[in-house]
Amino acid sequence: MSHGEHPMSVESDGDVPEFFEIAHFGRDARSLDLAAFRARHGDHFLVRRGALSPERRPKRPQRTVVFKNVPGAEPTPAPAHPPAGPPASPDLIVFSVRPTGRSPFPHMITVGRTKNNDVILSDVGISKFHAFFKEERGALSLQDAESRNGTFADGVTVPSKKAGKPVEMPSGTKVKFGMLEFWFLDAAGLQDVARRACP
Predict the structure, then answer these.
(1) Higher pLDDT, 81 or 34
(2) Whose CA, among 67, 89, 148, 179, lies 20 to 30 Å from 113?
């Protein structure tokens, strides 16, 4: 769907919307200082261009569709300068990365296909419980939850707990859950993008 064809937010079965369009943040990005913007909207976000494909939204309970080769899963050299984040575009959608009370794991922020996750990605290639964020020394880190199609940060595989340590997530990191691509942003990064995308 193009900008304007889907609602400003998509409600889950609970009270917390699954995601917002970038326009939802535009006025506050221009009128609030960073502390007030964070207090109103939160500290961390996943941002992508365009809504999730309605054709890939599960219609009924089903197994995760497994992809043989997930593009962009190969290691890439670390960037010479910090990531720039997403382009300022009106078709950006924003998922809040914060506890919602939907997840049965209060010590983590869960990402997955089903409605008992904090970040709901309604896509057949996303596992029911795909990955999770945890706060480590004041910053968020990401760990795969033994998903069927993997989790990647800047092209590098994010390991599960059995396979390695969590990956720290600086603002601007490109993240992939299976085939779905996002930028991970802190509040300052989202505020900047929203100002530029919603003049």
Answers:
(1) 34
(2) 89
